[in-house]
Structure formats: structure tokens, C-alpha cells
Amino acid sequence: MSKRTLIGVFAAVFVLGAASLAFAGEDSAVKAAGLWVFFGIAIACGIGIGMAALGTGIGMGNAINGALQGTARNPEAGGKIMTTMIIGLALIESLCIYALVICFILVFKIPDLGGMHELIVKSLGG
Amino acid sequence: MIHRDKTLRQIRTNNWLLVLILGALSSTFMSATFTTGVIVGGLIIIANFSLLENAIRSVFPNQGPMRAKKISLIAKSYFRLAIMGLIIYILITSGWVNPIGLAVGLSTVVFSILGLGIRAAWKTSSREAV
Q1: Is residue B35 classed as helix, strand or coil in its secondary structure?
Q2: How far apart (Å, rounded) are the C-alpha atoms in residues A55 and B87?
Q3: Comparing B64 with B16, which gets the higher pLDDT?
Q4: pLDDT tens digits along A77-119
Q5: ipTM of the complex, rounded to two decimals
Q6: Which of B90, B97, B94, B100 shows the shortest CA–CA distance to B33?
Q7: CA distance linking residue B26 with residue B101, whole number of Å
Q8: Domain boundaries, chain B
């Protein structure tokens, strides 16, 4: 996706969001704002966990690639290489686990409906 | 071989020690849900590390033929991650644990490995200084 298309998509999302707030009544505006918050959280979680999985996959692939090449060239060093690889894999995998935990927190813990509703009403001057 | 066993044994010992220390500290200074999060997170990540090690050792042994098929490593990895994700999901949604405490507990292995690395670097630098 080119940079121009990306900017266009973000602008369209922003304009649609602003329009839904501007043209709706107070209750509808509150609901729309709440929906946009949930929309943002869902998009953030989807993109976040996807990027984390991508990075983890690339990192683990590189680590295993290097370890297997090293072992094939020097089989006597296989033990040390495998140990280092296991340690590296544990470190890389933990990054994806953190991303998963953060996504769960975003989805299940942050959207406190009552508090969010009050905040939105206050921000709209209700 | 000796080097390998020593390093991994050190990491395993450090993991348990860290879980104990972090659990004791959080039980003293933090809430009960935070302490539960630290301990459960630590246990999950220690089990995960052991399973990862066993799976890799069974497919890529240092000597001799493979003890397991490569496809079993892939299946085991996906199963392990799915089970871990499910457990974390249940823990967070049920509210039994504090998510920050859980994240701290899940960092046990990372802290342990970082500690080992820092100690090794310290030893190397002090040896070079002498």
C-alpha cells in the first residue's frame, strides 16, 4: 500500500468519525464515540498482535537458520549452539507473549463501560 | 556438553529463585491478585521454557538420531502456545490475577537470562581488566 493510499484511508476514517459525532444527537454522539473507542482498540490489537507475530516469526526463523547452519558446518559445536538457540528462542517468544498479554489487557480490561460513558458525556459537555 | 548443562541448569535454578523472590516481594508490598499474577505467570513461563527445551532437544539432539519427527515439534509448539494463550485469556478475563503482575511473572525467564548475560559480561570484563 502506497503512502498516499494510507493517508487517504486514515483521512476517510477520521472524517467519517468526525461526521458521526457532528451530525448525531447527544446520545447518539456518545454511542458513536464509544464505538470509535472500541473500533480503535480492536484495530490496535489486531495490528499489534499481527506485527508481534511477524517479528517473532522472522526472529525465530533467523535464529534457527543460523543455528542449523552452524551445526552443519561444525557438528562438534552443536551442543553449545543449541543451548544458545534455546535461550534466544525463549527471549524472542517472550516478546510475542507480552504482545498477547497487552492485547488481552486492551480488549478485556481497559474498556470500562461505565467510566468510559461518563468520560464521553463530560467531554461532550453533557 | 558440560557447558550446555551448566548454563541451562543455572537458568532453571534462577527461574525458580526469581519466582520465589518476586512472589515474596509482591506478597509484602502489593495486593493478593498481583502476587497471584506473579506466581502463576512465573509458573506458566517456566513450564513453557521447559517444554520448548524438551521439544527442541527431541528433534535436534546433540548426538545420535532424532528422537521425534519434525512435524511433532511443529504440532507441539502450536499446542503449547494455544494452551498458554488460553490460560492467559482465562486468567485475565476472570479477574483472578492483576495483568501487570502476570506480565511481571511472565518476564521471569527474561530476567533470569538477562541476569546470566550480565554476570557473564561482568566476569569477562573483570578478567580482561586483570
Answers
A1: helix
A2: 23
A3: B16
A4: 888 888 888 888 888 888 888 898 888 888 887 766 566 667 6
A5: 0.77
A6: B97
A7: 9
A8: 10-121
Subunit contact A85:B56, Cβ cutoff 8 A = yes
Question: Structure pTM?
Answer: 0.73
Taking every pair of C-alpha atoms in chain A, what is the biggest distance, in angstroms? 74
**Is residue B103 pLDDT above 70, yes or no?**
yes
Average pLDDT, whole number, for chain B? 84
> How many Å is the Cα radius of gyration of chain B?
18
Closest CA to A87 of B127, B65, B14: B14
Whether residues B52 and A94 touch (CB distance < 8 A) is answered with no
A63 contact residues in B (CB cutoff 8 A) = none
Check if the beta carbon of residue B106 is closer than 8 Å to that of residue A101: yes
- Phi/psi-derived region of residue B69, left when phi > 0, alpha when psi is between -120 and 50, beta in every other case: beta
CA atoms within 13 A on the CB side of B78: 5
Grid cell, residue A29, equals 454522539
Cell of B25: 516481594
- Probe site for chain A from B10, B81, B110, B112 (most A CB atoms < 10 A): B110
Q: Does B86 touch chain A (CB under 8 A)?
A: no
The letter for the amino acid at A31 is: K
Q: Under an 8 Å CB criterion, which residues of A touch B?
A: 68, 71, 78-80, 82-83, 85-87, 89-91, 93-94, 97-98, 100-102, 104-105, 108-109
